[in-house]
Predict the structure.
Amino acid sequence: MLSKSAARAFFLVGTATCSAALIGLTVDSFARIPGQTHAEKITPAVARGKDLWDSSNCMGCHTLLGEGAYYAPELTRVYDRRGPAFIRAMLRDPEKMYPGQRKMKNFHFKESEIDDLVEFLEWIGKMDLNGFPPKPDLVPLAVPMTAGTAFVAKAGNRPQIFNQMCIACHSLGGQGGNVGPALDLVGDRHDAEYIGRWLYDPLAVKVDSKMPKLPLSKDQIQELVAFLSQLKSEAKP
């Protein structure tokens, strides 16, 4: 049993020690912020993107750095998860990307504003957040190997562009979206030539297709064709 004087001393010393520790940790945290956030990479485009994020009230639906609403997807690592092509397509016309499915309104951003938002999200995505948020458990990415100009992809791996864009609507092996059909064994149903034409312009193949013409480069289409055409019943990982 402590005496009154001993209890008072214990309280005062304990309070002073904890306060000093709290102040020290706070100072250390603020000192780490510029390095971990890569403050030197805040370009005018990043700053404009941040202003546009705030003025458009994006946080009213999305979460960024753990703050915001949970009505729409969390966007801290969206640049790595979806890539710039997908982000730009969504910002241009959300309904076109997800006909009848997407509740995000079209803000009618200018191309320069879209570029600024992409720059801002790229900067956010490259912050050192001590492992937050955790990376999704996706199938390992394929490493494209070139033989001349053709891409070679193993059926057991997913190309990066597939994980960034295609998986948002389609599923494979039980992972992904359900807006479009599952792509398991799609190589049994369609050959490489058909898949290539479909990826280049779905509406030219099927006029009532819900899939939009995606902003895919020639190399990305080649990579996806090589991957998808090998998803056959006899394919081995």
Observations:
- The chain has two domains: 39-125, 145-228.
- The first strand starts at residue 63 and ends at 64.
